[in-house]
Amino acid sequence: MAKRRNLPELLIARSHHDMGGRPAGKVKPLEHDVEDWERRVDAMMVLLTGVLGGKRLMTVDELRKNIEALGPEAYDRMSYYERWVTSITQTMIQRGVITTDELSRKMEQVKARLEEACRK
Amino acid sequence: MPQVSDKRGARAARPQYPNDLPSEPVRFAPGERVHVRQTAPLGHIRTPFYIRGCRGTIERLCGAFPNPEELAQQRSGLPAQPLYRVRFLQKDVWPGYRGNPADVIEIEIFQHWLEKA
Q: What is the ipTM of this complex?
């Protein structure tokens, strides 16, 4: 069983994302294409932070906060832009731009659309 | 951000960072010894875990910027926090470091994470 740590120790513990300096293998450079949905997520961030369009609905710091709040398992499983889109969604809910109900209904619509497309 | 040069090669007068924000007074000067606080408030922190608790030397003042920990919580981050480039000896950061003992690592750290060493 893991050693039980006290509260002060837990509060100064390393967050999962904060991996700098941890033992690791060599970095393997890997070429890969950026998918269309990933470009769209990037574009959304440009618009939401007001880099273009002049309307600031969130900061990059909130993007980071909500990425860093992911559990270790989710953090490792998700790809770069999957983390982004999850964090943007979380931020929009926190800011009241969308509600969880609107999100869930939209997701149902999208799911239905995909299922419809698969049947054809 | 890259340095901006005009055609004569001189540095343009354009500031490299917003300098018109209300900011916390600057507490450290280049050459001063500092100690990085060993703490971890919740939320978004830009001070890497591995450098907390280490001692280093102020290399330069980089400017003052809205506090990212506050920006992450939908607040203004003002007054702006002075940001320093701090130089550490690698051997002081990594236990058992086997490289050149003069090797350094430089990290940009906000003033509220630093204390006089």
A: 0.84
Asked if residue A67 belongs to a domain, the reply is yes
Does A12 contact B71 at a Cβ distance shorter than 8 Å?
Answer: no
CATH node for B33-116:
2.30.30.50
What CATH number is associated with residue A50?
A: 1.10.472.20
Segment A11-65, tens digit of pLDDT: 678 899 999 989 888 989 989 899 999 999 999 999 999 988 889 999 999 999 9
Longest dimension (CA), chain A: 58
> Rounded to two decimals, what is the model's pTM?
0.84
Q: What angle do CA A20, A24, A29 make, to 5 degrees?
A: 90
Q: Does the beta-carbon distance from B49 to A15 stay under 8 Å?
A: yes
3-state SS assignment for residue B59: strand
Q: How many CB atoms lie within 10 A of CB A82?
A: 15
B90: left (phi over 0), alpha (psi -120 to 50) or beta: alpha
The string of pLDDT tens digits covering residues B38-73 is 887 788 999 999 999 999 999 999 999 999 999 999
Q: Report chain A residues whose CB lies below 8 A from the CB of B45.
A: 15, 18
